[in-house]
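pipeline/complex-builder :: batch 7 item 3
reading input block
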Amino acid sequence: MESRNDANRETKQEAADRKKRTYALPIGPQHPALLESENLEVFLDGEVIKDVIVNVGYLHRGIERALQNRNYIQCIYLAERVCGICSGVHTISYCQAVENLLDLEIPNRAKYIRTIIAELERIHSHLLWAGVLAHELGFDMLFQIVWRDRELVMEILEELTGNRVNYSMVTIGGVRRDISKAAIPRVFKVIGSLEERIRNHMKVFLNDKILLSRTSGTGTLKRSEAEELSLVGPLARASGVHYDIRRDHPYAAYGMIGWDTATERGGDVQSRVIVRMKELLQSVRIIRNCLMKLSTTGDKIRLEKNCLAVPENEAMSRAEAPRGELIYYARSNGSDRPERVKIRTPTYSNLLGLRPMLKGQFLSDLPMIVASLDPCFSCTDRVALIDTSTWERKSLTENEFRRHIENRRREK
Amino acid sequence: MMLKGIGKVYRKQKRSTFIEVPRTKFNEAVSMLKKHGLTRISSITGYDSGGMFEVIYHFDFRGQLVNLKVKLPRRSPYIDTITGHFPGAELFERELMEMLGVEVRGHPDPRKLFLCEDSPSCPLRKMEAKHGKQK
């Protein structure tokens, strides 16, 4: 008994010592607070976060390398699979890059359809995000309700494109499917009811006392920090940075219709909620405007263009994904395959923002703050191939390899 | 925007300008861009042309992209860090280092980003990949 008491006393003292110094707490790669694999090394002083190191790479699939081994048409479908949520905007961005390589101007109708798909996708992504945030806050009722309404968008997307995710709608030179006249009234109807529901959710997010006390003043990111670290998307806009590719570098039909950007000055989780909610309402407005314009544009939705020999060129393409600016750099070499495609996804840019956001916050707020960034790690980890077994083979030259095999045969 | 004096403009597209600068003038060009009011680094692309390595820095300037290309010889692929002027380039430079094997001098945190620390480096180099299926 006595010895056990001694042991207890020691641990208490140890605990007291531990309180005084910072210690590192590993979170992830697999953790209930994270939706995808990543690793956060959190340095804590008691409950307060002193520093954080983000380690990524767990979802690396080698897509940039794989893009070099496929022809331009096959690449559309691979680019679509960079991200499971913002798949549409990846195809838009990739196809724009190839169109820039070919110096193509797509028909207006295709521009409107691309915009409609991109905005429907933004609604689905932002609603998904709002649900996840509510879930991280422990408000599971709201999470269920928001995701129930997200189903409306998913159904509309399925009706228009045939798929709930990975729509396969965009192609080089335009879009693959038209939006029929018969479908338009139904989209209008659903969009109307969605708008009403979004306004209701906005009321909850902006008035619920528990939500407010958790979100306001938490995870604050100053405007200067957001600018210095080149952060993008709703995260930067919530800190007062007026940066929206749809406005600054208009693509598809964004320069041809009326809409507004949403910015907030607070920089905390609350501001991020407001920015995204406002963007949802703007998305509804953009879709309405585009649908109305569809009746007055020509019928042509696609320019037939042969992509078997794309002349040597290099081009950039940018788009505003739900999470922020998405950049594609493409380079052609005269063949049917791209020489190099570089993808810069929004979360990759925004990762640096995690450190200033988390410093000085409580550990219990970490899941919510990380979720407020809307991180997408499958987007971030995609750059190149790592395969140690192939690498070992690669380190031998072809002749060396043959010799090695022959020697082994002889030994047998 | 004043792009004269920074380097040779070799390609101009809608809202995107490509400029080539020699490595010796790279630091000068970056500080000039910073002086012109560029604050945002959008991305860094590393490319292996087979002979030379090409590093392209994509800067944003009020909706215009300024792409600064630097060619590096294969034998001594090094370049100075730009994190002093553009702290947002930290992760992009780490990716450049591990994927292409370019040495970024003066980087504050030159660890690997996507690859694990003991992985054999430079998966985007062409020579190394020749022995596998890829060309």
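note: The interface with chain A takes residues 11, 13-16, 18, 39-43, 45-47, 56, 58, 60, 62-63, 65, 67, 86-92, 95, 99, 112-116, 119-120, 123-124, 128-129, 131-132, 134-135 of chain B (CB under 8 Å).
queue -> next item
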